[in-house]
Write a structure and sequence with these properties.
The chain is of the alpha/beta class. The protein has one domain: 3-Layer(aba) Sandwich (Rossmann fold), CATH 3.40.50. Helix 3 runs parallel beside helix 6. The chain is globular, with a radius of gyration of 18 Å. The relative contact order is 0.18.
Length: 241
Amino acid sequence: MLEIRNLKVSYGGIRALKGVSLSVPKGQIITLIGANGAGKSTMLRTISGLQKADEGTILYGEENLLGLPPKEIVKRGIVMVPEGRRVFPDMTVRENLRIGAFLRTDKEAIAQDRQYVYSLFPRLEERAWQPAGTLSGGEQQMLAVGRALMSRPKVLIMDEPSLGLAPLVVRDIFGIIRKLNADGITVLLIEQNANAALRIADYGYVLETGTIHMEGTGKELLDNSAVREAYLGKSKAAVRA
């Protein structure tokens, strides 16, 4: 579905991505793990049209997405949930959701999708007329995911969805990611919580200083001693606790 080939991206004189290639097959959860500064968010911003690439291709079907503005990327069904949630704090929950559907004119279907979001996140319906800035961190993350879903994504790109959240909320968020995937949405997940991400991933990539250092199924990477030591802690028992 989504194929990244030899992607190179620079900031000033610093090369953030040094020829990265990876695949996001239809219907799967693909995760990209790595330390801060490895280039994970740069990858997502480039796919979403927010960052210009120096070289490479981002194929979606037969089309190369490089050079398209973010609006056109969203039109094609590739939607990002940004790091830090980025909700509009002075707007209500309902208004934030409506912004997620800004490219759509099918009012009845928009209303149906809003109810789908509320079925996933009942607390959002309870707080529909509440300003988003007054929500808890976990509720804002739910809203960020819900807003993305209002665009009817085919590929949902998620940048650090568990960042700053309590463990119980993290568990709920990853449960929702599984549910969305079961409902037919392909997911590309960027996470520092490698344990949680690899547990739900069909396939994973380890990014280090702008290059793919390792790849394999989620289980293979969970069981890999080098991955455990670098990202999960040395104890295999701890990983499975």
